[in-house]
Amino acid sequence: MYYRNLKPMLIVCILLAIIPLLGVAWIFSQGLAITVDNLFMSLILLAISASFGINVLIELRNRKLGAGKSGKAASSSASNSRSSIASNEAVLERGRVESVQFFESHVGERNTSIVMLSDGGTASRLMAFEGDLRNALPVGKSVEITARDDAGRKILLNVNYR
């Protein structure tokens, strides 16, 4: 749902980055004396332009990373001893559920559950899942979770209790 509106939002951000630059050019093209007011107006417009410009660069970088994520992500996940790749690019995670925290989002946004898994003596790891998983992943149980990645959040496909 978020990526459907990415292109129009990207165009709007580009426009909102360019318009303040036009304002700065207009201030200096008028031949007005460089006053403190003109200087601060230029600085404010440049800050607005920079914030939208950085937003555009981040969105373009995220789109580029999302497109080239097929082979490298699969190989790095397969080398991890705690997770392995199942069919259809699903990730298999094993461990004991330390905690499940649920965060309810605003209307139109995805709700998120933050799950902390541990493998005995090794370090714990955090995973962000879409939806409310407090009942699906009871604290203290050893589980085997099958999930797929969707825009930085995992979607729970299956849970096996060990």
Shape: elongated
The CATH C-level class name of the largest domain:
Mainly Beta
Quote the average pLDDT: 79
Tally of DSSP β-strands: 6
Written account of the structure:
This protein has 162 residues and is α+β, with helices and mostly antiparallel strands. It folds into 2 domains: 3-67; 71-161, Beta Barrel (OB fold (Dihydrolipoamide Acetyltransferase, E2P)). Helices cover 41% and strands 29% of the residues. It has 3 helices and 6 strands. It has helices at 6-29, 36-67, 70-79; strands at residues 83-85, 91-103, 112-118, 125-130, 142-150, 153-161. Strands 1, 2, 3, 4, 5 and 6 form a 6-stranded antiparallel beta sheet that branches. The two termini are 35 Å apart. The relative contact order is 0.11. Residues 70-87 have low confidence and may be disordered.
Summary keywords:
OB fold (Dihydrolipoamide Acetyltransferase, E2P); six-stranded antiparallel sheet; 162 residues
Q: What can be said about this structure in brief?
A:
Helix content is 41%, strand content 29%. The protein is of the alpha+beta class. The chain has two domains: 65 residues; 91 residues, OB fold (Dihydrolipoamide Acetyltransferase, E2P) (Beta Barrel), CATH 2.40.50.
Any chance you could write out the topology, listing elements then pairs?
Elements: H1 6-29, H2 36-67, H3 70-79, E1 83-85, E2 91-103, E3 112-118, E4 125-130, E5 142-150, E6 153-161
Antiparallel strand pairs: 1-2, 2-3, 2-5, 3-4, 5-6
